[in-house]
Amino acid sequence: MSEDRALETEGWALRLERGLAGAGIDGRRARRLAEEAVAEASDYALPPEEVYGPAEAYARELARAARAAVREERRLDESRSGAPVLRLRDVSKRYGRKTVVRDVSLELGSGQIGAIVGANGSGKSTLLKICAGLVRATSGSVERVENVGYVPQAGGLSPLLTASEHFRLFGSLDGKNERESLVAGTRLAQSLGWRPNRKLGAARLSGGTQQKLNVVLGGINRPRLILLDEPYQGFDQGTYTDFWEQLFSWREAGAGVLVVTHILHDLDGVDWTCELHPQEES
């Protein structure tokens, strides 16, 4: 970094810190937020003002986000009581004469991880799509909270959009502005050991990295219900461990997490399982 760039960055960080303090953020936290913003901007090899805009305006946004986080924490405190975020009663799905899912009932509470397991062809992915509202059940009832994150087994990305553009697109669905979306997405990506390349479209990412992006998009808006369909295809062992740590973090934060898996040792960390079996034509 050139001396001029360093001075600009230092000045921007100081203005941000002062703006945060003026908005009621305590000095230690204001300093930490300024340092984090500078560090995140450096990941993109850009001055922080190019990433976040003027320090004074960004300070107001951060202060507003901090107040919203307090309200969200109160909501999560309430959700940690275990109130259901998903409830299925006698759900079945048929395609013609083929029954794919038969009479499934389950209830997922906030602060729980549930697992759907079963042999290939037992209807695991179909059931998860029913939970997400992507497929209509033939019979039975489905109740879910409104704020839902869904992570597919593959696909679901726009091939020409970069990771950052995906962050902005999905974040906008929750009312986030571009900078808030970028920060939320980057932080989740880092929890998976990934620093997104700001120039590569999704089609140029490896299969494992595309799935990391899908996981980030599933959680970027802090949904109360997170549905994941074996999204760890292509993960190395380190990322696989990080993935489960993120699921545990979501559970600790009060979200309900439902994951499709075929790996038996995954079940050690879940609260309950729902086992499906292949159905015969009738």
UniProtKB/TrEMBL annotation:
One of its GO terms (molecular function) is ATP binding. Residues 86-277 form the ABC transporter domain. Signal peptide: none annotated. Keywords: ATP-binding, Nucleotide-binding, Transport. It holds the Pfam family ABC_tran. InterPro entries: AAA+_ATPase, ABC_transporter-like_ATP-bd, ABC_Transporter_VariousFunc, P-loop_NTPase. PROSITE patterns: ABC_TRANSPORTER_2. It comes from the Bacteria. SUPFAM superfamilies: P-loop containing nucleoside triphosphate hydrolases. This is ABC transporter. It comes from Peptidiphaga gingivicola.
